[in-house]
Amino acid sequence: MEIIVHKAIQDEYPDDFAWCYGCGRLNEKGHHFRTGWHGEQTMTIFTPKPEHLALPGFVYGGLIASFVDCHGTGSASLALHRKNGHDVGEGAEPPRFVTASLKVDFVKPTPHGVALKALGTVHEIHPKKWKVETEVYADGELCARGEVVAVVMPSTFIK
Amino acid sequence: MEIIVHKAIQDEYPDDFAWCYGCGRLNEKGHHFRTGWHGEQTMTIFTPKPEHLALPGFVYGGLIASFVDCHGTGSASLALHRKNGHDVGEGAEPPRFVTASLKVDFVKPTPHGVALKALGTVHEIHPKKWKVETEVYADGELCARGEVVAVVMPSTFIK
Fold it and tell me: Beta strand pairing status for B53-55 and B129-138?
């Protein structure tokens, strides 16, 4: 059974905030990571492209870091959106986050050629600062652990 | 004055290890990060492509994480290569590292449209495990701090 993300928070970011190389739906050359709820956890699914190699047969760590990064900001947005009383898909504009810090522990080499699944657990530090703990699986095996501290986008980001 | 990396460790990786999306010279679609000595520090220079956005005007954090990652493994390789009595460019095969962990603190939004410079300080933890502390500058301003723990590539990576 293929697992997919039906309702992704990134589908609802305003157009002005949809240019991210990792998760912006309007960035034609980007990865188009999409993050939604999966029970009480958050989930992002992505199949690396042929060029996303560390070595032939294994996925590039920087791609995994990117995956953890956008999964983290998307997860924080999902959680604050829910806390604000909204569900994804109802049309309310979700909050946008930026990454304050990113950490990835590479548990084992990540095989290339299969879908990666990120599962996130979101913790509120305070209303504008959230922590997302992520596990990245390939073919059911845990390959990386990540942690993102995401903060509500500051006005310095908005031109 | 333009600063460039003259002798990069990645130029000397064997062909079988030159496919990394971040720093492999043979990966046509990759970033081609190149890392060399800069005094007692290590240096990597990269100008993000137009699509490497977080928001219009600012660089994607996952790209910065990728930059810190390959800068880290390249720096560890430079340091062990030197410890082994070799200089870059003399033709000896350098040691190859993989990333055990990667951490990036985003100090401020990174402006898009200028070259990024990573400066690394390398610490030996033990002969097969090195830590690289990195500062990422854009236009002379510190935008991110990174830390990579790199280990000599284990045999599980070699097919």
Answer: unpaired
Put simply, whether B26 touches A (Cβ < 8 Å) is: no
Label the pairing between strands B116-126 and B58-59: unpaired
Q: In the beta sheet, which residues pair with residue A130?
A: A124, A150
Q: Could you give the ipTM of this predicted complex?
A: 0.95
User: Do B65 and A66 make contact, defined as CB atoms within 8 angstroms?
Assistant: yes
Q: A19 CB near a chain B CB, below 8 Å?
A: yes
Instruction: Please give the average pLDDT of every successive group of 10 residues along chain B, which has 159 residues.
Output: 82 93 97 97 98 96 98 98 94 94 97 98 97 97 98 76
Bridge partners for B135 per DSSP: B119, B145
What are the DSSP E strand ranges found in B12-140? 35-38, 41-46, 53-55, 58-59, 97-106, 116-126, 129-138
Q: Decide if A11 contacts A48 (C-beta within 8 A).
A: no
Chain B contact set for A58 (CB, 8 A)? 157
Return the CATH superfamily for domain A9-157: Hotdog Thioesterase (3.10.129.10)
Whole-model pTM? 0.96
